[in-house]
Amino acid sequence: MLTKLKDFASTFFVTGDPLIYGADVAIVLTTIAIVFVLTYFKKWTWLWKEWLTSVDHKKIGIMYLIASLLMLFRGGVDALLMRTQLALPNIQFLQADHYNEIFTTHGTIMILFMAMPMMFALFNIVVPLQLGARDVAYPFLNALSFWLFFFGAMLFNLSFVIGGSPDAGWLSYPPLSEMSHSPGVGENFYIWGIQISGIGSLATGINFLVTILKMRAPGMKLMNMPLFSWSVLSTSVMIIFAFPILTITLALLFVDRFLGAHFFTMTAGGNPMMYVNLIWMWGHPEVYIVVIPAFGIYSEIVSTFSKKKIFGYKSMVFSMMIISVLSFFTWVHHFFTMGAGADVNTFFAISTMAIGIPTGVKIFNWLFTMFRGRIQLKQPMLWTLAFIPCFVVGGATGVMLAVAPADYQYHNSYFLIAHFHQVLIGGVVFGYLAGIYYWWPKMFGFKLDEKLGKWAFWTWNIGFYVCFMPQYALGFMGMTRRVYTYGWDMGWAPLNLVSSIGAFLMGIGFIFQVWQISYSIKYGERDTTGDPWNARTLEWSIPSPAPMYNFATVPHVSEQDAWWAEKQAREAGKRAAAAPALEPIHMPKNSGIPIIMAAFWFVAGFGFVFSWIWMAVAGLLGVAACLLARSFQYDTDYYIPVDEIKRTEASFGRGI
Amino acid sequence: MEHETTQTHAHGSVKSYVTGFALSIVLTIIPIVLVLSHALAGKPLIVTIVLLAVLQFLIQLFFFMHVREGEQPRYNVMALILGCVIVFTIVAGSMWIMSFNAAVQ
């Protein structure tokens, strides 16, 4: 019995690597610390009632934000481990198989468990407020989306200490990810972690599409809508059409692994290239899914901090919508070297280059908005200014990669690595950071410290260029991606060392941001006006942090930049601050079902990972029970009485 | 919030859901039987399966997705057209891309 248990534990837990033992200890200690603090300060009920069961879009947004920052930390540590290993030739810091696991988890986490939730955090916090709505269209579904993402991410991260991490690259190409080449449970963790959080992403896409189409304040036409909300609309359309492709592709891969089918195997009529073809049909829209909201954020920030209406509003809208449709017609440029023939490659090379046109339109619009504006160099604006040159260079190298014949030279080299990090960090990460700095006062009621923020900004930016510019050159020198070490004779040592230094500079930038947040919680400038940046859109017309019902009275909108127009009118004395009669506010009730249902999904996923059918069935039965319980719940809403609204508004210094 | 709207306009009847469900099941079983019994092979088999899939797509659209309902069918039509364009791209694009691969093999 004891030996059986020992055998089980030695395969169940990951053993042998001191780094992982260290992580085990850290996980246990952190868990104990969290449980102790919650118990000692008697916060369990508070946590459950105020956060875990909340359907409030602002709280869900904050939970997304916390989770994504934790994932940024883990993905960042993965990156630093890799850069340490590559800093000099022949380092024995990581073994080859461990290195494979780390680049796999780095990529998967950064895209699916860092960028996506950080994007959803901003969707949740900002969109209803910008539209003048009191919540999203489906608040319960919104909570469910978050918990599905959360438990999916936890399942994926668990592979680190239990069972072993996936190691077939961030897109798990077969045949490497098939049973024949990866018999362990790592790939199962990959499939189920992404599947479970993917259901949540799809639901979020639907939720925000409906919210934008149906929940806008009276009078707000689509063409009056703030550009960030437009970008969310564009992204939601892409999510709705792209994520089902991912779900099907991974499901087919799982059927191959679990039931011994032959969709993507090397033998028996399978075709591994079909997987590559399918996964990039999701994968290419996916990169636009994460970058388009960043474009929306830049548009808001540029306009606010230049004190000007955005230049070319309509062309911004059209270019975003065109990008969202075009994104479905470029996927082959990720595998030109498959050799699908000159006609196929030519078509996709041209469609790829065509994406540059709407993107270029946007860049010029931002520049023209700034032109003769009264620019204020606050933190959100700094990141926006840093984004523009960075993204232009990233876009230009992208067009180089789009030249199909030349791509045979660049493909899978460090040139490619440098390119996509430049667009993903320079475009997506800078954008989300800018958005976090911009909307932080609306989330928490205080600004983040400027001085520490500038330190973070400069270390991040200098670190970025020091890290990735050498990688373009390394690509030309023949260094391919995913090599875990190299010899002195390759001549790659100096540039790799420089690149690693840059990576650590970015790590220092992140530490500055953590310091900045902890410092600002205590000393940050409090926002008492609700409009700390003198901004233009409706979210700034309400107090910071926003009260749970958002708007005491629903605003009426008749033009773009509604809040700016309102402020202008009030200044000119044309309009007094409106004070229509208050009415009881209809709100959704909190629910524990989302977190419980997602936990059952986690159990089911874990069962499938280890092929423990009893556990998978139990989990799925739990999911079904939750669905049934929700179907027969009729008491799901309530009204906030007028007295309570008055009290809340008065506490913000706004008597009505 | 959603609760009120669900009561104001109807979302199909039990009968229409059961009919849709039964038809979907039947249209799923037929291809399974065709494959398992080796009644058809090669091209005819694939064509039959694709036809049955398209039929099932239409049934789900009408019985479960309520395409005919709602005050603004404009959105429905737009979404459907975009969906069809993307489905066409996926299927035709994959065939086009993979045809060269097949020719080489």
Q: State the end-to-end distance of chain B.
A: 57 Å
Mean pLDDT of chain B: 79
The helix content of chain A is 55-70%
Query: How big a fraction of the residues of chain A is strand?
Result: under 5%
- The overall average pLDDT of chain A, rounded, is 90
The dominant shape of chain B is flat
The tally of beta strands of chain B, per DSSP, is: 0
Report how far apart the termini of chain A are: 72 Å
Structural class of chain A: mainly alpha
Q: What is the fold-level CATH name, i.e. the topology of chain A? A: Cytochrome C Oxidase, Chain A
Q: Count of helices of chain B? A: 4
User: What is the H/E order of chain B?
Assistant: HHHH
Structural class of the helix and strand makeup of chain B?
A: mainly alpha
CATH superfamily of chain A: Cytochrome c oxidase-like, subunit I domain
Question: Strand tally of chain A, please?
Answer: 2
Largest sheet of chain B: none
- Helices and strands of chain A, in order, run as HHHHHHHHHHHHHHHHHEHHEH
Task: Catalogue the unreliable spans of chain B.
Answer: 1-8
Radius of gyration of chain B: 19 Å
